[in-house]
């Protein structure tokens, strides 16, 4: 157990970005991902092709913040509901699901992550960032959202499955929205 003055949001290292979203149909967005050679796993494909995945016809921008689970005040890790509740208390918002593909298209210089050989199963890969979004369905077998990673110099937009009991590690990175602008 860690004891002491842990840095927490807003007094911690963060990364902010402004991301432009919208203006593309779902098919145009998928084509754009293909043009940039962005790879998808099965869960990412399921999210993108699901009828609940909607794209905005209107372009808009979002300010996002990237920080670790520990910087949200969980030095030992936390569940998704705990993370989302704390983020909300701190004034952070969940992101629209469509942010995942748009952020992937804008964040092409993501640093290389762990090759996966030392990963524990059912854990976020080192170097990845998970987009905090509303859950589309309570079905534990349906992807809960997207995460971004770069592995072997290939960019990925991946979907993931995690139930409400899954404990995210303190060093796992999440992206939340700071403000929504139209």
UniProtKB/TrEMBL annotation:
Which keywords appear in this protein's UniProt record, sorted alphabetically? ATP-binding, Helicase, Hydrolase, Nucleotide-binding
The answer on whether this UniProt entry bears the keyword ATP-binding reads yes
Q: Which organism is it from?
A: Sutcliffiella cohnii
- What are this entry's molecular-function GO terms? helicase activity
Query: What is the protein's given name?
Result: Helicase
